[in-house]
């Protein structure tokens, strides 16, 4: 249809609507364990649990350089940031979740300056952010600048390649998924 929507039967209309795919993933889990009568409640529970898990990760990250009480206040504050006062996994919540994960990944990288894990996590989080809202592709450039500035001189290129390579692999996986479900022409029509 070119609208970027996917219905419950799995028809994908355009490539940029990741939020529907995200919900469909949990709807598939839900379909195995329950009836479709309370799907909205189930998706709200998924949203609350996701928000809680990211709040815990926020606490654990900030606890490394602020007091435990301050880290707790930051995590509680984050938990209470709920766009549109709805916990359903939609565009605004996913934008918040993945932006936070990108931020926390880069923060961990800046604190540890070594493990490739945080660059990979930043790459996956950036990819999910771009899938939830495609204009977030502009996050990549500041991310690359940050990696360049925070990396030791001998590791700059390697660290950039880890981050950009992760983004590229995720992007190719996303593209392959869509091309398995539609023609290339339909894909291009959905981008406009």
What can you tell me about this protein's structure?
The protein is mainly α and 192 residues long. It is 71% helix and 0% strand. The chain has helices at residues 18-33, 39-62, 68-79, 91-112, 116-132, 140-150, 156-181, 184-191. Helix 2 runs parallel beside helix 4, helix 5 (116-132) packs parallel to helix 7 and helix 6 packs antiparallel against helix 7. The longest helix has 26 residues, at 156-181.
Summary keywords:
single chain; 192 residues; mainly alpha; 8 helices; 71% helix; disordered N terminus
Calculate the terminal CA-CA distance, rounded to whole Å.
12 Å
> What is the mean predicted local confidence, pLDDT?
81
Q: Report the helical percentage.
A: over 70%
Using the alpha-carbon principal axes, give the shape. flat
How many H/I helical runs?
8
What's the gyration radius in Å?
18 Å
Q: What summary fits the major beta sheet? A: none
Low-confidence stretches: 1-16
In total, how many beta strands? 0
- What would you call the structural class? mainly alpha
Summarize it.
By secondary structure, the chain is mainly α. The chain is built from 8 helices and no strands.
Outline the secondary-structure elements.
Layout: H1 18-33, H2 39-62, H3 68-79, H4 91-112, H5 116-132, H6 140-150, H7 156-181, H8 184-191
Helix pairs in contact: 1-2, 2-3, 2-4, 4-5, 5-7, 6-7
């Amino acid at each position: 249809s070119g609208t970027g929507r996917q219905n419950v039967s799995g028809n994908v209309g355009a490539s940029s609507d990741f939020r529907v795919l995200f919900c469909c993933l949990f709807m598939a889990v839900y379909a195995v364990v329950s009836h479709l009568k309370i799907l909205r409640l189930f998706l709200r529970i998924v949203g609350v649990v996701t928000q809680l898990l990211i709040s815990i990760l926020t606490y654990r990250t900030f606890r490394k350089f602020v007091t435990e009480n301050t880290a707790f206040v930051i995590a509680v504050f984050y938990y209470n940031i709920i766009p549109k006062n709805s916990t359903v996994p939609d565009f605004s919540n996913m934008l918040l979740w993945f932006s936070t994960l990108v931020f926390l990944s880069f923060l961990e990288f800046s604190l540890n300056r070594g493990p490739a894990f945080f660059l990979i996590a930043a790459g996956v989080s950036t990819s999910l952010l771009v899938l939830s809202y495609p204009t977030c592709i502009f996050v990549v450039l500041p991310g690359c600048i940050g990696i360049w500035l925070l990396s030791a001189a001998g590791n700059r290129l390697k660290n950039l390649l880890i981050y950009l390579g992760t983004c590229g692999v995720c992007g190719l996986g996303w593209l392959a998924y869509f091309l398995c479900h539609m023609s290339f022409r339909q894909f291009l029509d959905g981008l406009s």
